């Protein structure tokens, strides 16, 4: 993960998203990683800026944000 400019938390978020059957929300990521919501949010924000994660509307609740991997994030 270091050669790609990722810290361990960001790498863990990518792994969690890769293993998820449905697009999780940031709260799901925080819970799955046993970190605080701000920690998960900061990691996701950095991954979005790097083009590895995309934020979309949750299919079951248009007010909620779901996270998906981009093509670059899947690589």
What key phrases describe this protein's structure?
75 residues; two-stranded antiparallel sheet; 49% helix; alpha+beta; 2 strands; globular; 4 helices
Tell me the layout of helices and strands.
Elements (H helix, E strand, L loop, with lengths): L7 H12 L6 H8 L3 H13 L3 E6 L2 E9 L1 H4 L1
Antiparallel strand pairs: 1-2
Helix pairs in contact: 1-3, 2-3
Q: Which range does the strand content fall in? A: 15-25%
Number of strands: 2
Q: What's the overall geometry?
A: globular
Classify the helix fraction into a percent range.
40-55%
Mean pLDDT, as a whole number? 90
Q: Could you spell the SSE succession in H and E letters?
A: HHHEEH
Please provide a written account of the structure.
- The chain is of the alpha+beta class.
- The chain is 49% helix and 20% strand.
- It has helices spanning 8-19, 26-33, 37-49, 71-74, and strands spanning 53-58, 61-69.
- Strands 1-2 form a two-stranded antiparallel sheet.
- The longest helix has 13 residues, at 37-49.
- The radius of gyration is 11 Å and the shape is globular.
């Amino acid at each position: 993960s270091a050669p790609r400019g990722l810290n361990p938390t960001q790498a863990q978020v990518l792994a969690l998203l890769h293993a998820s059957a449905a697009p999780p929300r940031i709260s799901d990521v925080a819970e799955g990683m046993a970190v605080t919501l701000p920690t998960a949010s900061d990691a996701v924000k950095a991954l979005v800026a790097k083009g590895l994660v995309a934020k979309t509307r949750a299919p079951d609740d248009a007010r909620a944000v779901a996270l998906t991997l981009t093509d670059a994030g899947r690589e």
